[in-house]
Amino acid sequence: MSKAEEEPGFITLEFVELLSDEMSSRADKFYEMMDKRRTTRHFSDREVPRKLIERAIQTAGTSPSGAHLQPWTFVAVSSPEIKMSIREAAEREETKTYSERMPESWAEVLRPLGTDHIKEHLTEAPWVVILFRQSKRIRENGEWAPTYYSQESCGIAAGLFISAVHNMGLVTLTHTPSPMGFLRDILQRPDHEHAMLVLPVGFPAENASIPNISRKTLEEISEFFE
Ligand code: IYR
After folding, report:
1. Residue-level pLDDT at 3
2. Which residue among 7, 89, 177, 224 is buried most deeply as judged by most CB within 10 Å?
3. Candidates 176, 180, 199: which one to mutate for ligand 1, based on the most atoms within 8 Å of Cβ?
4. Residue 5 lies in a domain
5. Is 107 in the pocket of ligand 1 (CB under 6 A)?
6. Which three-class secondary structure state does DSSP give residue 17?
7. Rounded to two decimals, what is the model's pTM?
8. Is the pLDDT of residue 98 over 70?
9. How far apart are CA 169 and CA 36, in angstroms?
């Protein structure tokens, strides 16, 4: 009997070691695939089967989380009426953000990305997925208790969602209308759930454009101590 099997609540990790060539080749291929991911604001209205969205959400649900509380709810919307309500509310907030709330230090870094208060992607994309972060949970005795590292946990889950969408040949955009309290009302989520990210998912529009920007190099983003 292995050590793990003697401990109640534990099982043995199933780990299949890869040959070192296979490890390198998978590392290269995954990086090259992910490096082709680009964020676009221009979506086609072409339909995407619900099964693909379910798979992306399931993949996001494999994320590690604080105390394994999995403090996330993914709300997937394809209803044109609900997408329109979200767009109208987002554009109302974003109009104020761009015209009144945004300091020049923020506007200057957004300019190269070509963003504005018009959020066509919220009605054009066939699916709009909203990630809600759960800041609290109910204990078995009915009392409320906090969740832990829910921002970090949901951030990691969002990264896995974005990777899954890219890997299945679709595009998504990380949209953060601000403030985004209206999403709780429209989507009827409880008070302890906080909208964190809006992710339209679909095919890119024909001739979708992207900013001509590049990524930092390995040297710029890392430091090694050996
Ligand atoms: N929430 C606004 C503004 C915005 C902010 C950042 I930081 C971006 O990277 C892009 C946009 C919007 O969604 O337009």
Report:
1. 64
2. 177
3. 176
4. no
5. no
6. coil
7. 0.96
8. yes
9. 11
